[in-house]
Amino acid sequence: MKKNVLHLSWIVTIACIGIYLGWTALRTELTLEQKIAQKLMIDVRYFCPEPGETPCRSAVTHLPHELAQLITETGLGGVILFAENLQTPEQIIDLTQDLQKAALQSPVGQPLFISVDQEGGRVFRTPRHFSTGFAGNMAIGATYARHGDFYASQVGRVLGQELAVLGINTNHAPVVDVNSNPDNPVINVRSFGEQPQQVAELAVAMLSSMQQQGVLGTLKHFPGHGDTHLDSHLALPLVTHSRRQIERVDLAPFQWAIEHTEVPMIMTAHIQYPELDNSQIESKDGNRMLRPATMSRAMLTDLLRQQMGYQGLIITDALDMAAISHYFSPEQAVLETFAAGADIALMPYPIREPEDIKAFKQLISRLATAVRQGQLSAAELEVSWQRIRKLKAGWLHTTTVQDDRTALYRLAKQQLGQPAHQALELELARQAATLLQNQSGLLPLPTKRIAHLHLLAATPLQARMLQQALSRQWPQEEWQRLRWTQSTFDDWQPEQALQLSQQADLVIHAGWQRLASLVDAGGMADLASQPRPSISYEAAMQASQQVLQATRQAGSSVVLLGFGTPYELIPLLPFSDLSIAAYHHGIEQSQAEVLYGPTYQAVAEALLGHTALHGTLPVQLMVPELAAQEVP
Fold first, then answer.
1. d(Cα 360, Cα 350) in Å, to the nearest integer?
2. What is d(CA 188, CA 513) in angstroms, rounded to the nearest whole number?
3. Full-prediction pTM beyond 0.90?
4. Of 295, 379, 577, 615, which residue is least crowded by CB atoms under 10 Å?
5. In this predicted structure, what is the pLDDT of residue 297?
6. Average pLDDT for residues 8-26, to the nearest whole number?
């Protein structure tokens, strides 16, 4: 009898398993429209429920009913968040929890990829006053010679920890572009450097550490955005490298990463590479043009998947960027990139008001029609959807929604910006700071002989930050008698700047800091709102050269500090006695008006001889004015 009961229990168990598996199969047997929706990742940056605000600039900090309904009804696959969506830890957790709740209530039952661009340095979306921003990839590259991949690994760990506790499960980082063009406006200091193997090792270390914290990473921008002089937010760049150069430089970090770690996502670049694909495509105005990589089957399927052996997801860069949107309608853009082999279309259609929701659903419907009519392969769509489903099953299966979020708030408070993370941020800044030249033996600064210091800075805020940092390192009795004057390019007065510089014992030029690309602010939505500087970069550089040359002729010493790309220092190096590259200009200003800038603290410590300069420049600076010498 006992044996029969045991047999019966096994039969019931097996039957229950069969019913569960059958139910699961039904849930995963999606409609064509649902599978397409899983392949779309929208931004929820702004939304205006009522018409009137043009353009809409109401930031989504709490999920509107209309967007929640859209996610649930369509079975949307993912969202990308921007700085406007991210204000406080509690608010971010509420937003990500509500986003996942809307997704899990869908008949699709799949959690969302909730993503962000959190590279560190220039591109960082969560508020720095409670999260850890770091100095960025080129700063990490400057530590490679001495520390290998240590700081890449540690930064990846912290980025992953701090995103995970906020409910953000996908990070569009790290950048693996090999920056070989000094005039590159969109990559530059976002790159680890100009040596492919170094870039590869640092990217893999950061990616692996971040993913150990449960946050998916994204290598970008395939097949390589390092040698461009145009910003793909504003134009369509063309790379004319030979096939040999492409393989040895641009593709090498991607290939190495594919072979050495799990790469869940690779992001495409909106770039033309005629050596990889010289076929043409018709734009929306009827003109013929070279296919961009985002729409190239030769690059995404034949090269990346078949030749390089990549098995993960291919996600496009934002399709609202001018490199795509200027030439193609949203529908054509998504059709072409899906046909090329992309799994996920990022920001395919802007949703800013209720009418846009209708248009977005129509886009999904038209894409489904394209599949039914054979314009898109149904078999390839199925394979792509299964890739997405498999990745979500492996990485997002623990996604839950909690009504009581007290424990989540508490965990975030413990993890975000904790002292150990801030200490790592400062230590990276110290180890990255790089001595470029010290021709007059000014290091450490002879504070006893400096009675008048004049600062040339980009903004008053930068001037305040540097003054605060130096005042904390300078001998106090000497600081009290020091005359401090300053000129800023935000309010440029050339005669005054020249006069004060010639009178000073020491002039510090702190660099010219402006947004090099729309990616710093967020993207195309920021184009119209970008402030125009009172003086152009070219005019500021010319003015700097004139002032520094006159300063040197007057017998004053010049210190050149680069708080951004080291390339911007090239025209000024001939006029400086001491030059330091620091790679990052980030400053935080708390509600109590306290300024915090780890890079500035690190530079001030080095100038006063309290710490050594260990960084090694990860790119070459060609300075023709110095008898064609290379700065190491």
1. 8
2. 14
3. yes
4. 379
5. 98
6. 40
pLDDT over 50 (residue 598): yes
The predicted structure's pLDDT at residue 233: 62
pLDDT of residue 184: 74
Question: CB of 169 within 8 A of CB of 214?
Answer: yes
Alpha-carbon dihedral sign for residues 260, 266, 268, 274? positive
**What is the per-residue pLDDT for 539?**
86
Q: Which token pair is 522? A: 């967020």
DSSP reduced 3-state for 462: helix
Helix axes 196-212, 150-164, angle to 10 degrees: 40
Find out whether 138 and 175 touch, Cβ atoms under 8 Å: no
pLDDT higher than 90, residue 476: yes
Q: Is 231 a catalytic residue?
A: no
Average pLDDT over residues 581-604: 87
Q: What token pair was written down for 316?
A: 């496009």
Q: Can you tell me whether residue 523 is helix, strand or coil?
A: coil
Q: Quote the strand ranges of 469-616, DSSP E.
A: 483-488, 506-509, 557-562, 578-581, 588-589, 595-596
Backbone angles phi, psi at 328, to 5 degrees: -135, 145
- The per-residue pLDDT for 595 is 87
Parallel/antiparallel/unpaired status of strands 506-509 and 483-488 = unpaired
Residue whose C-alpha is closest to residue 338's, from 319, 358, 357, 362: 319
Q: What is the mean pLDDT of residues 324-344?
A: 97
Residue 114, token pair as written in the block: 């909730």
> Which residue has tokens 């393989």?
247
Backbone angles phi and psi of 289, in degrees to 5: -150, 160
CA-CA distances (angstroms) from residue 64 to 57, 79, 104?
14, 14, 16
Helix crossing, 252-260 with 196-212: angle to 10°? 40
Q: Which of 231, 317, 320, 356 is catalytic?
A: 317
Exposed (0-12), middle (13-18) or buried (19+): which is 235, by Cβ within 10 Å?
A: middle
585 conformational bin, left if phi > 0, alpha if psi -120 to 50, beta if neither = alpha
Residue type, 446: P
- Percentage helix, strand, coil, to 5, in the chain? 45, 15, 40
Q: Which pLDDT band, with edges at 50, 70 and 90, does 29 fall under? A: confident
Q: State the residue for tokens 């929604």.
A: 401
CB count within 10 Å of CB 65 equals 9
Q: CA dist 67 to 24, 75, 100, 360, 465, Å?
A: 26, 12, 12, 11, 41
SS3 state of residue 496: helix
Query: Phi and psi (nearest 5°) for 489?
Result: -75, -10
When pLDDT is cut at 50, 70 and 90, the band that residue 182 belongs to is confident
Identify the CA nearest to 176 among candidates 158, 195, 161. Answer: 195
Q: Where are the alpha helices (DSSP H) in 437-482?
A: 460-473, 476-481
How many helices (H) and strands (E) in the chain? 23, 20
SS3 label, residue 585: coil
How many CA atoms lie within 13 Å of 223's alpha carbon, on the beta-carbon side?
A: 34
β 595-596/557-562 pair status: unpaired
Q: In degrees rounded to 5, what are phi and psi of residue 30?
A: -85, 160
Cis peptide before 444 (omega within 30 of 0): yes
Helix (H) or strand (E) holding 574: none
Burial 464-503 (b: 16+ CB within 10 A, else e): bbbbbbbeebbeeeeeeebeebbbbbbebeeeebbbbbbe
Three-class SS state of 115 = strand
8 A C-beta contact, residue 44 and residue 5: no
Unique residue bearing structure tokens 């150069």? 245
Backbone angles phi, psi at 411, to 5 degrees: -65, -40
Q: How far apart are CA 616 and CA 614, in angstroms?
A: 7
